[in-house]
Specification:
Strand content: 15-25%
CATH class of the largest domain: Alpha Beta
Largest sheet: 7 strands, mixed
CATH topology of the largest domain: Trna Endonuclease, Chain: A, domain 1
Structural class: alpha/beta
Number of strands: 11
Mean pLDDT: 81
CATH architecture of the largest domain: 3-Layer(aba) Sandwich
Oligomer: single chain
Helix content: 40-55%
Length: 387
């Protein structure tokens, strides 16, 4: 008979939280270990097939025979289809010359490896998407979306002043945080929209917005208030980059980039660093999102800027037919969709990211300072490796 539990002590909640976090962490690490062993098995099978075919007069039929024999010997184990064996062979042939890629393939799921192998042919491009998938825990759909939106190419040509404004220890990671162009194809906005409409639409799809930005951001607030010398200033969107440990101010512009935008952003970043940035955090970063930009004008404007700033463009749809332009409705504000509370919008949403159980998320503002909370309080983490 189960003994009745009396009134629980006040510390029970923290105990249960610690146990749950430990279980989730162990479960995630176990999945990673299983996945690494499975991909290693597939690599070895591909290598054995290639080596035998090279040394013997065996044709394609040998792969079909191996598949039948493996399925007969291990009926409860999936993954030994003829097609999958050909993928194993292809993986070995295409990655055997790169030690970097060999190490990375074991860090992500087999299904993700197949997507990268099929859609990316350049070794550096493959390395980029493998690393990003490992870092951010991209699902298959997100990975495919990132490839289709040419995230690799956009990252390479991003316009920033980070070479001068950010130290070498953070520079590479910071450059990955700013693309040259962002695609917000999840928004229901026409070509004609205001900056306020764009801001509200992004907030209304906050999970999709964070994913489009790279998946490693946490939302802090919109129209984030700063006060300097009794005058108020408002940042359109304020995010927190968890890997850089930096606040990221985003200014939305529906027109062309203008040089004066940089001066305004420098002012915001200085105020954030002086008033909001916490001890141990790195300097704040600014991203100016415009509808259009001319690269030379951006280059000149950033040349003498001392604060780290990136300038990018955004588009709503990649390919919008001419006859549909202007026909999409602007999003209507729902009274229940978001509400203002001490300069912070509060949302109920899930963010799908592969992260550590001890990661911290910025969730709001209190007394002029962003507040932080353990990830398992703030969001539900969807951690899975599909095999």
């Amino acid at each position: 008979m189960t003994e009745a539990v009396g009134q629980l002590p006040p510390e029970y909640g923290s105990l249960l939280l610690a146990v749950k976090e430990r279980v989730r962490t162990a479960h995630y690490q176990a999945l990673k270990a299983v996945n690494k062993e499975l991909v290693g098995l597939y690599w070895d099978i591909g290598r054995l097939i290639v080596e035998r075919q090279a040394g013997e007069t065996w044709g394609k039929a040998i792969v079909q025979q191996v598949a039948r024999d493996l399925q007969g010997e291990f009926p409860g184990i999936s993954g030994f289809s003829v097609q999958n064996l050909w993928y194993m062979r292809q993986l070995y042939l295409e990655y055997q010359g790169s030690e970097k890629l060999q190490l990375l393939v074991g860090e992500i799921a087999w299904s993700h490896n197949l997507i990268v192998m099929a859609r990316c042919k350049d070794p550096l491009e493959r390395e980029f998407y493998l690393r990003m998938t490992r870092k951010f825990g991209w699902s298959k759909n997100i990975l495919t979306h990132q490839i289709e939106n040419q995230s690799y190419e956009k990252t390479l040509i991003g316009q920033t002043n980070f070479d001068k404004a950010i130290g070498p220890e953070l520079r590479a990671q910071a450059k990955l945080a700013v693309k040259d162009e962002y695609t917000f194809d999840f928004l229901e906005l026409g070509e004609a929209h205001s900056e306020r409409e764009l801001e509200r639409a992004l907030i209304g799809r906050i999970e999709d917005f964070l994913r489009a930005m790279g998946g490693v951001y946490a939302f802090v607030g919109s129209q984030f208030r700063l006060e300097v010398e009794d005058e108020e200033y408002f940042i359109d969107l304020l995010l927190y980059h968890r890997r850089l440990c930096s606040l990221v101010a985003i200014e939305l512009k529906i027109g062309k980039f203008q040089p004066e935008f940089v001066g305004k952003m420098q002012f915001y970043l200085r105020a954030l660093d002086e008033q909001v940035r916490m001890e141990g955090e790195n300097p704040s970063i600014g991203i100016i999102l415009c509808k259009e930009k001319k690269r030379t004008i951006v280059e000149y404007a950033l040349h003498d800027a001392s604060k780290p700033i990136g300038v990018a463009t955004y588009q709503i749809l990649k390919h919008l037919p001419q006859e549909l332009k202007g026909q999409l409705p602007s999003p209507r504000r729902s009274p229940n969709s978001w509400r203002r509370s001490n300069n912070v919008q509060e949302y109920s949403h899930r963010v799908h990211m592969g992260v550590n159980a001890n990661d911290t998320y910025a969730i709001g503002q209190r007394g002029g300072k962003p507040t932080f909370m353990s990830g398992f309080f703030c969001i539900y983490l969807h951690l899975e490796i599909r095999i």
